[in-house]
Design a protein that fits this description.
The protein has a single domain, classed as q2cbj1_9rhob like domain (Jelly Rolls, Sandwich), CATH 2.60.120.620. 30% of the residues lie in helices and 15% in strands. The chain is globular, with a radius of gyration of 20 Å. Strands 1-8-3-10-2 form a five-stranded antiparallel sheet. Strands 7-4-9 form a three-stranded antiparallel sheet, with no helix packed on it. A two-stranded antiparallel ribbon has the order 5-6. It is an alpha+beta fold. Strand 5 and strand 6 form a beta hairpin. The protein binds 2-oxoglutaric acid and fe (ii) ion. The site of 2-oxoglutaric acid has 6 residues, from loops.
Amino acid sequence: MALTDEQLVAFHRDGFVIVPDAYDSAIVAAALDAVERAAYGMPFTDYLQKFDAEGPGSVTDGFHGESEGGRTQFPTGDDALDALIEDDDYLDMFSQCLGSEDMNYSNAHLFIRFGPTDKRHAEHLWQGYHIDHNTNCFLPPSANTYQYGYVNSAVYLHDVLPDGAPMHVIPGSHRTLIDVLPELIRSGDWSGNSALTDLRKVTEFQDPVPATASAGSVLFYNSYLVHAAVPFKNKRAQRCFWTLSMARRDNSTWSKLANPWQYGEREFLTPFLEETTPRVRTLLGWPPLGDAYYTEQTVDLLASWFPGMDLEPYR
Ligand SMILES: O=C(O)CCC(=O)C(=O)O
Ligand SMILES: [Fe+2]
């Protein structure tokens, strides 16, 4: 499965595209179970009951890092989640969006919002619009959205309906932003290098649209795309995404998040590296298959560094 020409045109024009049925339903259902285990330490429906019975103080107010039942940063250690990055069709679509086969991992994590207690949104609908670019990059936006922007994506692990806090995105804002930024900065309406104080001030932008989609869909969006979180209208809903950000390798010195290399993170990355595919190892920075690094000597050494790794492809 690849993006059609129309989908790719839409991605460049709008700064985002939603691809339905990118993952099959059994894979997505298993991933959702795994997210719920990591986030709540139990199924969502049980966590709702706990909330009903014991009140807001009985549930967590954030799902970052270590959550109630597991780890929400990639790699989580749960194959039902970590294997989503190994899907070749998904990676092919990702590289179409980046305009390069040569991609570099920036960050991946579980994005979980629990409707009953969720506060991850601004007070008013004209507030909270921002770009995610600075999460993985220190550079301000460039007119060259391909080369210097990067791509974020979210795998929808259940249907996200209009009342289920769909992310709101502004079509085309990844291209328009650079023209309106100087004035926004001058007037004090751009804060922290990434957020608009008041959407109503930017008459050049189109109206925001909700990124609703069914389970198994994938959203790809440019890192310069202006978007915001909105509140749940249905407070009995949750919203669970598996997310991944990647940059073109020829821009990866300035677009990256190096957390998997930090000590403390390595204990999670090492077993994942051991089991994943050569393609994914290369996303994580390893020399590609066929690289001159892989000699009999180094492959033998890899065998002792990573005893469980299938090294045949490198020989
Ligand atoms: O939750 C959402 O819909 C968007 C959240 C968001 O934009 C962010 O955390 O950067
Ligand atoms: Fe964001």
